[in-house]
Amino acid sequence: MKDLSGPKATRYSQPLGDKLWRNFVIGLPYLWLFLFFLVPFGIVFKISLADPIVAQPPFTALFDFGANTKNWLHATFDNYLFLTEDNLYWISYFNSIKIAGISTLLCLLLGYPMAYGIARSTPTVRNVLLMLVILPFWTSFLLRVYAWMGLLGKNGVVNGLLAYTGLIDAPLELLYTNGAVYLGIVYTYIPFMILPLYATLEKMDLDLQDAAADLGAKPWQVFVDTTLPLSMPGIIAGSMLVFIPALGEFVIPALLGGIDSLMIGRTLYDEFFVNRDWPLASAVATVLLFILVIPIMLFQRSQQEKK
Amino acid sequence: MISKNITQTKQPVTPYVPETLWLDPEAKPFIQIKGLSKKFDDFTAVDDISLDIYKGELFTILGGSGCGKSTLLRMLAGFEMPNAGQIIIDDVDMAGIPAYDRPINMMFQSYAVFPHMTVAQNVAYGLKKERVAKPEITRRVSEMLELVQLSNLAKRKPQQLSGGQRQRVALARALIKRPKVLLLDEPLAALDKKLREQTQFELMNLQYELGITFVVVTHDQEEAMTLSTRLAVMDQGRFVQTGTPTQVYESPKNRFVADFFGTINLFDATVISCQPNEDSASYNIKAKLDKTGTMVKAVAESLLSPASAITIGVRPEKIKISHERPEGDNLTIAKGVVEDLAYYGNRSIYRVRSESGRVIQVSAQNYQRSEQLSLEWDDQAYLSWDASCNVVLTE
After folding, report:
1. CB-based contact (8 Å) between A224 and chain B?
2. Quick one: how far is CA B318 from the chain centroid?
3. Mean pLDDT in runs of 10 for chain B (395 residues)?
4. What is the distance in angstroms between the Cα of A215 and the nearest Cα belonging to chain B?
C-alpha cells in the first residue's frame, strides 16, 4: 500500500518550482499595489493625523519614544474636524462632485453617439475615426489646455472670429468661467468615454436590434430596450474613467476656471504649497480617496450579487 | 412532441393541406413577390425575383452562401428595402411598411434571444410592444412556453440555456405575435444531429397545425428536402428552379441544381435519336456516352436534335452494385473496381472506378445484416441502373 500512495501523491501535486512561480506571478500586482498605493497612502494618512509645525518636515511625528514623554503616540483628528468646520472644504468637495458629475454626463451624451457611429462604420473608416479619437494624446495634456486658453481668451481666436463676423461688439467672457472648466474636462476626458463604449457597442450582436424591431419595437424603443441596457458595462466603465480623474482634476480648473470654479484639487494644492499645512492637505486627500473608493466598492459588490 | 399541447392555445387550429394549392390556377397566393431586386453598391444580391407562396406553405429558399437568400429574407422582414419590385402579403403592399409594423416575425439564425431578459420576458416582448393588457400577456406567455416545453425555465436567463432551448425561446417569441408569416433563417444549422431531426418534425407539426405560412432559408439541402412543401434553389440572386422537393430532386433543371441538390453522377453524352412519346409531351431519346460509347435510353422534356450535347445524370442511390453481371432490357451496365467505400450503418457509399476511368458514386442500402454483399476495396463490381433513372440535363 505504501508503494502506491507514494508516486500518486507526487504525480498530482505540483513541483515546488511551479508553485513558487505561480505565487510570484500572482503576488506581483499585489506587491506593486502595496509599494505604490498602500505605503504612500499610509504615509499620507499618518501625516493627516499630525499637527503642522514650522520645521523640516512641516508636521509633528506620529510616534515619540523620547525619554520624558508620557504619550508615545501623538495622533490628532483635528484636521478632519477642521474640514467639517470650514465651508471652503464642503464647497470644494461639492463643487468637485458637481463638476465631475456634469462633465461625465456631458461626455456620455456626446461620446455615446460618437462611439455608436464609429462602431457601425465600415472597417476602414472605423480605424481612421478611432485614430482621430486617440490622436490628441500625442500632444502634451498641458499644451492642449494652454491651447484652450489661447482659443477662449479675451483676444483669443473665438472672440476674434465672433467680432470679425460682427456677431458681437465686446469680447465674451469665455475663459476663467465654469463653462471653460466643463469644456476643458469634456474635451480632455471624452476619449476615455468613447473607447469603452465603442468596445461594447462594436461587439454587440446586431441581430438583437433587428429582433426587437421585428417584434414591434419602433427605432427609439429598439434603442431603449436593447442597445442601451446591453451597453451598460461600457457606460459604467466610461463614466468611471471620466468621473474619477475629473473629481481630483487640478490643472484644468486652475488654468481655465475662475474664482468660483473651486475644485478639491485646487484646494489641496493650496493647502500643500501655499499654506504649507501638510497635515490638513493630507486629511483632504484621504477624504477624497474615500469619496472615490466607497462608491466603487458598493458598485462592485452589487455587480457580484447580480452574478 | 410540440403538437400534443397545441389545442390549448387560442390560435384557431385549421389543419392545412397546402400540397395542391399552387397547382390550382384559381388559388390566390398569400405572399406575392414581384420583380424584386436588391443591389449593394455594384453587387446585385437579389436579381429580379418573382415568386408566389400560398397560405400554409412551408416554402424553403435553398442556396449556398452569398446567393442572396438572406437578403431576400431580410427584405421580407423589412430590414432591407428593395431597389425594385414589390412584396405583397395577404393583399397588402409591404412597401413603406417598416419592420415593426409588418405581420411577419422572424427566427434568427443566431436566435437573437435578448441576453438581459429572462425567458418569459423574451417571449412577452412582442406583446408588450403591442400594448396587450398585462393579464393577457401573462396568460399567452405561459401558454406559449408550454407549447415549446419551456414552462419550467421561464425565469432563466438565456445564458443558462442550451442551444436547443434557446431556439425554442426564439421560436416562442416569434410565434406569440401570431404572425401571418414566420421567417426562419437556417433554423436547424446550430443544432446537433439528434436534436435536428427532432426539431425538424416539431417544426413541421407546428406549422401544419397553426397554419402559419413558413418561409425558411437554408444552405442545407437535407433540411430543405424534409421540411418544405415547395422549395426554390437560388444562385447568384436568381431562382434556378422552383418546385416540390421530389420535382427538384428527381427532375433537376440543370447541372447546377442536380449537383447542388444532393449528389449526382454526371456523364457527358451525345443525342443519337429523339422521338416524341405517344401519350405525353415528353420525348424518348437514345444517347451515346462520350467516354465509353455506351448507349443509354432516357426521357427528355423537349425535342433534342440528334448530335446535340447533353448531360446524363444518375443519382447514387439509383445504381445497383453487384458481383455478377445483372440481366435486363433497360439496364445501363458498367464494370469497375471499388476504389473507396464508406460504411454508414444503414447504407454504404461506394466510389467505383469504371473501365473508362471515371469514378461513379453508388449509395447502397444495407438491407441485409449478413455479409452476402461484402464488397471490399479493389473488388470487381458491376454497376447497373434502369433507363428511367437517367436524368437528361441540357444546361
Report:
1. no
2. 21
3. 43 48 81 94 92 91 91 94 94 92 94 95 95 95 91 93 92 92 90 84 82 91 86 93 91 89 89 84 87 86 87 92 86 90 88 89 82 77 90 86
4. 5
